[in-house]
Amino acid sequence: MAENDRGEPAARAETFKADVFISYASHDAPLANVIVEALEMHGIRCWIAPRDVVPGSLYADEIIRAINDANVVVLLLSEHAIASSHVGKEIERASSKRRRIIALRIDSASLNRAFEYFLSESQWIDLHPGDADAAAAQLTTAVRRHLEPSAVIGAHIQSNKRFLSPVRTVRRGKWLVTAVVVVLALAYVTVNKVWLSKHAQVEDPAAAIAPTNIAIAVVPQKSVAVLPFVDMSEKKDQAYFADGLSEELIDMLTKISDLQVPARTSSFYFRDKQATIADIAKALAVAHVLEGSVRKSGKTIRITAQLVRADNGYHVWSETYDRQIDDIFKVQDDIAGSVVKSLKVSLLAGGASRSIPTTNTDAYTSYLQARALFQRGSADDYRNAYEHLTEAVALDPAFAAAWSEIARVRVRQYYLGQITLTAARAEAHLAIGKALQLDPQLPEAHLTRGRVLYFLDWDWQGADTEMKTSLRLDPGLGESYRWAAMTAGTLGRFDEAEDLLRKALALDPMEAFTYSTLSDYLRQSGHWPEATKAGARAHDLMPSIFDNRYVAEIALSRGDPQAALSALPRVNSPIEVASIKARAFRALGRNQDAAAALTELEKTAAADAPAEIARVYALLDERDLSFKWLDHSYEVRDPVIVDIKRDRDFDALRSDPRYVRFLQKMNLPP
User: Fold this and answer.
1) pLDDT tens readout for residues 196-208
2) Which end of the chain has fewer CB atoms < 10 Å from its terminal CB, N or C?
3) Chain segment 584-597, per-residue pLDDT in tens
4) What is the strand order of the sheet 46-47 is part of?
5) Nearest-5° angle of CA 33, CA 185, CA 183?
């Protein structure tokens, strides 16, 4: 048996703790399993036997521990449960620990005295004939109400080697509700045949249940999420090094076509969050998790890595490496190779090993420090990242990845107004030219060159070519799909852009920016429920950046200005608030309020967001004013106008000859 880094048996990496304990009689197991599936689709962690009983443990001990850990106990109350001594003991234990008990009563069997005593103060939900869907929804709402907000993680996005769209995810949720309805109904029918005789029966029960089986995606066994390795160094100052190791492993493993590997954003999302291995695996739709730790002291490193099977916590493989830092690339190759071997992945279409990016470990250290600073993302972080990268290429002028990162940092600094366009363009082109000269097959360098052409040159065709090259060289690079989607959208290829966004989410299901962009696409194409779901997902993942603007925008698009105004208390940007007010008040006929909002919008957005003013005037069909602000947007290079072709909010301008002339000025096809 594999061992953990303390030399202990590793049958289970950590104890699974859930928010909800499911108590049921064995006769009601089909219903219990569907209830668990429905709750977990809403991000509510459940514990149910025998699924979550650790192999080799005492069954009763596991049940007692699970009840102690849970916040809520859901009881499937039936004649079988009332007759079960095991269920009676579970409810007695839950009551003694003052756990919230929610009983879903599925038949009319009389309670015995023990159940009357323990359930006298508990919440009940009755399954009435024909109201199974309402009962399932009521149960989910009741459980959520009794849990702390932190207990409910976002609903996971299942994905396979292709992708599962938000539309498909919505449908899967509906099929789960259907499954709850079917099984609840069957349970009710089983114990009440009199009621059954009075109602129409399903002509083909198998046909009613079959779609549920189709809708539930199967997690591929050849899949692994690489979690950020933990910094175990004495001073806790090597997190950048540990993160760099994790990122390199993700990059290596994504290049293996037979292996599904979530991107960095998704794998790192769970850092410092209270989530179990099972939670993470479910959210990322993987069967395995690679985790580990790094202890670095001077030139000596100890790296511990373990590959864990998510469904039972079994350590498939583990190893500890005591090496000199000069061997870091060899260690990365060894870890990636061990993962590939353990999962029996074919290497015919690509291998886990790759050429060493630099032979200078000091240059590599500076590069990793720069990458960590870039992820933090403040103005000072970008300046410091640039300094570390210039140091890296000074130490090793042949370090292609470091040159590529210099160009990436310069693009970001220009976008945030830290450096001028002239300075950014000159240095970014020089750096990315160096990178591609040194390594023409580096996918990240082609992606970065695409960014340079897109943001700094407004060379959309050139950017499109670079994005496609990046994807050809590394089809597993999720970030390339997102940027390729942006370029396709700018050029007016909307269906292709939406398809690329969905593929990006399949590889990076916790990327909030992708959800936000997809939400906007769906809103403008009139798919409002799906747009709402995608926007809500972006908000859940990154609430500090993605507020409730999506709610207001969708409300305006579907003709509900009052709902848009109601969402404003949860919209943070004064520019966005003024924009929404102007359009909503105009739609409500409150012209004086609309004029005041427009005045406020022009005052707050003129310098930094003139395209937003142009957009509002276009929506109000005030074309002269819209073109006036579009011209100003072009002069200050407002990035919003790069999407003018795909932005349906500018539809009122498209029949105007000035619109074609503006596209020509933007180097965009008509």
Assistant:
1) 233 333 333 222 2
2) N
3) 999 999 999 999 99
4) 46-47, 20-23, 72-77, 100-105, 123-126
5) 20
